[in-house]
Structures are given as C-alpha cells and as structure tokens.
Predict the structure of Haemin-degrading HemS/ChuX domain-containing protein.
Amino acid sequence: MSVTSWPVAASPSLFRQCGGALGDRVLRLQEEPLAILKALYRLGNLVVTTFSAGSRVSQNMHYPVLHDGEWWLEAVGQRCRLRQSLQVDHWHSVLAVLEPVGDLPARSLLFFDRHGDALQQMAVAPGSGGLAFEELVCAMLHPDQQRLCFPGDVDRRQGRGLDSLTELERDWTRSDDEDSFSRLLMRYGNRRAHLYRAVRDSFACPLRPETLPAVLASAADSDTATTLCVGNRGVRLCMSAPWSAPRWQGNHCHLAHNGALVSLDMARVGSLWRLRKPGDGQVLTALEALDEKGEWLWTLSAGDEDEARWRTLLGNSVIRQC
C-alpha cells in the first residue's frame, strides 16, 4: 500500500504562500480549471489531495477520464469505492508548482476557489506522465506571471431561520432520498447545528466525541466497511472501504486503505451527531461532525455492505451526551 503525506494548511494562507514563489517555483495558469483538470486526468497515475475544513484525503490512483458534461467520477476496487462530484462553478484559479514550496511537491497543480481556498492538489506520480505535465503547463500559462489577485473575505450565508418543530420534522420525514435531504439542509446554511438541536433525538442525537474512535476501532476489528464523505465548496468525495485501525497523532486521526490516506482533525469538531435520514427506501443512520460554527465537516455511514451490520456496530460504540 502506498501512503502519501500532504501539507497541513489549506486556506488562503496557502494561496499567499504560492504567491510568494510566483514566477520562480510557481507559475500561474489560465483560469480554465476544468479544461486543465480533464487534461491532467489523462496523464496516468495521480496523487490527489482533497482539502476540507476538518480533514485531508490523499489518494494515489489512476483516475478515470472526465468527459464533457460529466463532472463526477466513480472508481470501484476490491471492497472499496470512490465517488467524486465537482461543483464546477466554484473552481477558479490554478497554480503549477515546478519545484517544492514548503510541503508542496514538485510537478503538482493546485486548484483554488474564488475565495482562495484550496480545493484539490494533484501531483503526477513518479514514473508517470513523462513530458506531458510540462507540455500542459506551457500550453496553459497565464500571460501575467507577476501577481495574483488575492481573494477577499468569504461570504458566510446564514440561511433562513428555523421553521416550527412540526414543519422541520415533517420535511425531514418526507425527504425521499439523500438528495432531497441535502436540499433540506441547504435551506439552513451554516445553521445546521441549530436544526439538529431543535428536532427530537430520534432524528438527531448529540454524541460525545469519544464515540468516533470507538466506532472506528470497532469497524477495523470487525473488518466492516464504512463510507466517509468529506468536501469543500468545489468537491464532494465519498470513499467506502474497510479502513485500517485508527492511528492518532495529537488531535489527528489517520485512516488508510489501499493507497488512500485520510486525516480527520478532531480539534475542529465542535459537535458530533447521530442522524437518522431517508435513503433508497430505508432509514439510514450516520455520524456527522460539525465545527464550532455549525458548518459540516464530514459524515461517516455504512459502507456498501450492510446497513444492519453498521447499526449493530453503532449500538455497541455510540456514547450519547448526558
């Protein structure tokens, strides 16, 4: 199994760090991230890191080619599955790293949104790509290599106020599938924690933080596959796999499976919830982490194997708040 490390920071500070090396070790590419992304996927094996507020996911794999109008991909391996969807309107700036900058590897591309937050980092794996990476960079060079337009503050939309408890639970129950439930959550912006606190425990129940290591350890011991979903404004990534036993470094929980490495930053978790929500004709149970502002960090749910097995595992591991 190949495991790859990644930079700790993924915020506008990373954008500024690259700006300091612009024209030397870093080159600015044209603001056509989707065309560059499609060309990059044709180069062979890529080491791709997806950034989010409370996690990092790094994978070394051969990505399927993206086609026009299909901003999603799915890759299936032995007892593992990757599903990725792109919110293309949020992809904006692209920088090429020619030589190492801090923890950023050479021969890699960084994709940012309009606020300067990093969405993904893509590096060409050793022995892959040949001169195609250099040719891609040369073909997509931006005419201005002297400056970057640093982004302003992020617009944090609060979403609408909470409906009555009866309306909330009615809409929750009437959600037909995962998509309709996601639309319900989007109505409340970053007030998701207020929503969860308003409904009854049978819908959303607060858990103690030590529930997570208990669940992950039990899943590893029983070789149970679980699905971890993370994301940012431009990428939503869901990976199903029987993850390794969790390895802890301070507040960071590391999981690995067949060339993929996940790091969850527990210091960013403000609250942990057990959710019951609709999906594919049945009620699904998930663990969801929110930050101190009530914004989504990640979701852990059943793998592609068995919802009933996942519920049994949760029953033995969940620690509710008093």
In short: The radius of gyration is 20 Å.
